[in-house]
Amino acid sequence: MALSVPGYSPSFKKPPEILRLRRKRARNHGAAVSPPPQLPEPAPRRAALAAGLPLRPFPAAVGRGGGAGGPAAARRNPFARLDNRPRVAAEPPDGPPGGQQEAPGPFLESNQENDLLWEETFPERTTVTEIPQTPHISFSKSDIPSSESTELPVDWSIKTRLLFTSSQPFTWAEHVKAQEEAQGLVQHCRATEVTLPESIQDPKFSTELRCAFQQSLIYWLHPALPWLPLFPRIGADRKMAGKTNPWSNDETLQHVLMSDWSVSFTSLYNLLKTKLCPYFYVCTYQFTVLFRAAGLAGSDVITALVSPTTRGLREAMKNEGIEFSLPLVKENGRKKRTSGASLGYGEEQVISDEDEEESFSWLEEMGVQDKIKKPDILSIKLRKEKHEVQMDHRPESVVLVKGINTFTLLNFLINCKSLIATSGPQAGLPPTLLAPTAFRGATMQMLKARSVNVKTQALSGYKDQFSLEITGPVMPHFLHSVTMLLKSSQSGSFCVGLYPHDPTAVFNICLPVDKVLHKEVVHKELANCGLHPKTLEQLSQIPSLGKSSLRNVEMRDYIYNWRS
């Protein structure tokens, strides 16, 4: 019987009295009712006991308040964090195989022990003790290393960075003499063909190698603004933020820049048409266009690929009479082809209206045309074009323009007002033109090359690892040229990591070929385009990488292996 305290209610009980009554009530309840069946111990506790770890009694086994004569259940630490339980992370590469987990260590911290008790008390919070076996991941054909080959597949994507690694030094690529740099510039301007031996004994003292390397680093750019990064243009607002752009609010200056750009663009197309320039890129802040001369990528006519596109851009091209196709979009089992010259906008609208009237004619036959609300024309049109809107800004939205329609595309791009941003850091800045050969208004630029020597850990200690980093807009011809040089300088053994500009990876899709061209004809017609014959032979191949691009290339004993 509880003692009464003056000034308080008679029913007041001190905390010790409350605990005593609860223990007594639990004992009485345990004597009157048969004990519940023993619950199985959780898997974490079984694993800990199997490892020989001293743990406190399991609360489910001794009862909530402790069994008769048994020790009382240990209380959980109320100050323990509830979120400090080890998370089940993805299995590391060098860890145990999937489906297995190493047993806990010989010691557990107090927090971990409290976590075990928390899991036992609250079964609704589950603990994963065995990581399920990782299902077999089926890699696509492009994700699996290719079969051994002496040549790389053609890759039309633009790279932003290349990182070569080799067991032999790249000292020949640094500290170029003034005479060697000048000789490289002359060789590039004169399109001099340089053929190196299969293996160079001492690359550091090979003047021919160093001049050829300088020759391959050159590319041509318009416009040229040294304080602005002009490639890539898609997603470059953050890099250009805070830079000086005096033309953003000056319409006269914008008109001058655009007029100069139009002259350079037209010059490039004329060189492409006469097969004096193999290809070039037009890089805008929304999409990229690749123009290729006839004979490249297996096509007998000039081709242009635009990616990514939007429904608005495609509609504008259609209204200008540009005939194009969507190579990655199929309709009724065939490649979708859109012609802007076959039907006018008004004729298409009349045909669509007639189809809609016929589709609701059955309502009139039933006599319920007034009771059922028909969807408006705009809703029907949006429903039909839903799939076209969904593929906007995706690789599937790539547009192919062929033949004489590329000239119409040229005029469309010159007069397209949405080609230039109206706000932001790129406001008023014309698109970037990139080409491997000179053109009117272009500026000669060079990719940046830097060699680094590091120590890497090996089984027997440390070994030297040499690397060569190349940054800038790396175009397809340079990738082939530099691999031919490294094949000779590194004795046919090196690796390279490639960092492509993702929006341009779709340029590697295989296009429908109307006529198979002979290599001799292609080489003869494009002999004056300024590329090495072997590089020209590679670029004339039909692309096989699909929507992907090369990511890793390894050469061992003059044999290539690559992964995309």
From TrEMBL:
One of its GO terms (biological process) is nuclear DNA replication. InterPro entries: Donson. Its main location: nucleus. Keywords: Developmental protein, Nucleus. Residues 1-109 are annotated as: Disordered. One of its GO terms (cellular component) is nucleus. The keyword Transferase does not apply. Residues 45-62, 71-81 have a biased composition (Low complexity). It is found in: Nucleus. Belongs to the DONSON family. This is DNA replication fork stabilization factor DONSON. It comes from Microcebus murinus. The lineage of its organism: Eukaryota, Metazoa, Chordata, Craniata, Vertebrata. The gene is DONSON.
